[in-house]
Design brief:
mainly alpha, MetI-like fold, 2 domains, flat
Length: 315
Amino acid sequence: MSKKVAKAVDKRKLMSQIYRYRGFYLLFVPVLIFTVVFHYLPMFGISYAFTEYRGISAPKFVGLENFQRMFSSPGFMRAFFNTLKLSILKLVLNTGMAVIISLLLNEIKNMKFKKTTQTIIYLPHFMSWVVTVSVFSLILSPSQEGLINSLLVNFGVLDKGEEIYFLGSKVWWTPVYYIVNIWKDTGWGTIIFLATLSGISPELYEAGTMDGAGRWDKMRYITLPALANTIITVLILNLAKVMNLFESVFVMQNDAVIQQADVLQTYIYTQTFNSGALPNYGYTTAVGIVKSLVGCALVLSCNYFSKKIRGRGII
C-alpha cells in the first residue's frame, strides 16, 4: 500500500471516529470557545506593557520604560516581597495543617463522629471572604465587645482601655492573616489527603503490627511516605497561584497596615482605580506580566527540585 493510500485510509478512519463521537465534540465546543475568548485572546494585550496607554488615546510605544519604572518603585518592590512572604508561608501552613488534620481524622474510628467533624471543618471554606473577615473583625474588635480583647482584660493580661486593634496593628496583622486563612481553607485541603489515606492498603498496617510497630511507627514509616507524593503535588499545583493573592488580603487591609498588607494584586488595583489620576494600563499590564513570570518560575523550580529529589515531577 502506497503512503498516499495509507494516508487516505487513516484520514477516513479519523473522520469516521469524529462522526461517531460527534456528541462529545459538540459538548467540548463551548469549553473551547470559552478558553480561547477568555484565556488566549487576552494574551494579545501583553503588547500594552510596552506602551503608555491611559484609555483615552491611542497607545504610545515606550519600550521598557514601564519595567524600569516598576523596578525602581518602592511600592512595587514592597508589594512584590509581601506577596511572596504571605503566599508561600500561607501555602506551607495550610498544607501542613491539612496533613495534620487528615492524619487525626484518619485515626477516628467512630464514623458518625468522623463525618460530623469533617463537615464542621469543611464549612468555613464555603463562606465568602467578606463574611469571614466580618466575623473575625467582631471577634478581634478592639473593645470589650471583642471576644479576644475581653478575655485578655478579664484574665489580667491587658488593662481596660489597652485593648489591641489586631487588624490595625503592624505587629499582629500578619499572624492574624495566617490564622484566618488556616481556619477558612485547611478543612477543604484535607479532602485530597484523606482520599490518599483511604487508598493505603490495610495489609501494610497489618504487616507493621505483626512486626511490632506502634501507632507512631506506622504513621512514620507507612502513612507519611504514602502521603509524600500527594503533598509535593499539592504544593507544586498551588505554587502556580501564589502570585494571585487578592481577595483575602484586600478585605483585611487598611491604611494602618498597608506596609504589611499591600500585595501585587492590590497594588495593581490601587494603581488602576485609586491612583488619583488616569490609570496607565500599560504600566499595570507590565506588573501583571512580571507577576505571571514569577509564578511560572516558582512552579518550574519546584518541579525541578522534585525531579532531583524523587526522580520525577508532575510537569
